[in-house]
Amino acid sequence: MTIEPFLNMLPILVMILSGYLMGRLLSLDSRTLATVASDIFMPALLFISMATTDLDGSLVSSLIGASITITALLLVVAFGWAKLAGQDPSKTVPSLVFMNSGILAIPMMKLYGGNLGMNMSVIFDFGQTFMMFTIGVFIITGGLKASSIKAAFTSPIIWATVSGLLVRTLAVPIPETIHRIFLYAGDGAPALASFALGVSLKEFRLTVKIELVGALFIRFIGGFLIGLLAARLFGLQGMAKVVVTVTAALPSAVFTSILQIRHGKDANFATSMVLLSTLLGAVTIPISFALVG
After folding, report:
1. Closest to 93 measured CA to CA, from 264, 202, 218, 247
2. What average pLDDT does this structure show over 56-83?
3. Rounded CA gap, 228 and 242, in Å?
4. How confident is the model at residue 228, as a pLDDT?
5. How many whole angstroms separate alpha carbon 99 and alpha carbon 117?
6. Which of 8, 85, 112, 256 is deepest in the core (most CB within 10 A)?
7. Which domains does the chain have, with CATH numbers?
8. Could you tell me if 112 and 289 are in contact, meaning their C-beta atoms sit under 8 angstroms apart?
9. Is residue 105 predicted with pLDDT exceeding 80?
10. How many Cα atoms occupy the beta-carbon half-sphere of 133 within 13 Å?
């Protein structure tokens, strides 16, 4: 794993650049694009991924448990950092906590571990996605209140992931035509999300401050160490340990910025984290694979 991590991140960077250029040339609305990506295309991807995975039930439970545990521990660390650094948690915490466990991790783990690695990555991403679109939305929209609960639990992503898990658990057959429709829509989710992020950059100004250095340290170093701890707690070995540990230390999730835009919030810090951590990932990802080896 040397050039492969960069090659997996390259499509993300190209789509971000394309969105930025098109946003400068045309009157594109990044919030509309973000809404379409988060409410239509991403739910399709998560539903079909969850509904069709063939992993053992106990392993599925362990991977989801590890994913939720990592999120919970990172939330504690991130809120502590925000308080010490005098930062607004609604703007900063999500990009420290939630990693690119879908758009980047799934194709990367397929390259590293074939279909087994990819399927494990999909299950891990389920836990991350559920937490990001519930707790993450609570944080972004200002805490646990009626409007934030409504924003979280009316999200199509939540219903899609839960529905996919139920379809898999109950062994409900999916007609081939329906399968193709969801797969076709889902395949477009990563590109559209990255493109929407790029469009939002037309009004973005990158400023590297000391707060970002601390945040990146938590995202990479903190994520890796907490990933190792979670793998140990749930007795994960081999490919499962690699998936959990390396994924926990990946760059910030694109959707931590997209959700800020989606809900009309200041996305500058989250966008900085997404861009900088994605670029640094070309170095940090091979190191993570080597350390967990």
Report:
1. 218
2. 93
3. 9
4. 97
5. 17
6. 256
7. 4-292 (1.20.1530.20)
8. yes
9. yes
10. 25
Provide the 3-class DSSP secondary structure of residue 88: coil
pLDDT in tens, 75-88: 999 999 999 999 99
Asked whether the predicted pLDDT for residue 1 surpasses 60, the reply is: no
Helix axes 42-52, 189-200, angle to 10 degrees: 150
Euclidean distance between CA atoms 287 and 73, whole angstroms: 22
pLDDT band at 94 (very low <50, low <70, confident <90, very high): very high
Q: How far apart are the C-alpha atoms of 155 and 192, rounded to whole Å?
A: 18
Half-sphere exposure of 243 (CA within 13 A, CB side): 32
Cβ atoms of 236 and 60 closer than 8 Å: no
3-6 long-range contacts, CB within 8 A, separation 24+: 4/108, 4/111, 4/112, 5/108, 5/281, 5/282, 5/285, 5/286, 6/282
Contacts of 11 (CB under 8 A, 6+ apart): 190, 191, 194
Q: Which H or E element spans position 262?
A: helix 254-262
> At residue 252, what are phi and psi to the nearest 5 degrees?
-60, 145
223-233 helix and 57-85 helix, angle to the nearest 10 degrees: 150
Between 229 and 112, name the one with better pLDDT. Answer: 229
Instruction: Provide mean pLDDT across the span 162-191.
Output: 89
**pLDDT per residue as tens digits for the range 17-44:** 899 899 889 988 877 887 888 789 888 9
Give one DSSP letter per residue of 11-75, joined into a string. Answer: HHHHHHHHHHHHHHHS---HHHHHHHIIIIIHHHHHHHHHHH----HHHHHHHHHHHHHHHHHHH
Q: What is the distance, to the nearest Å, from the Cα of residue 152 to the centroid of all Cα atoms in its chain?
A: 16
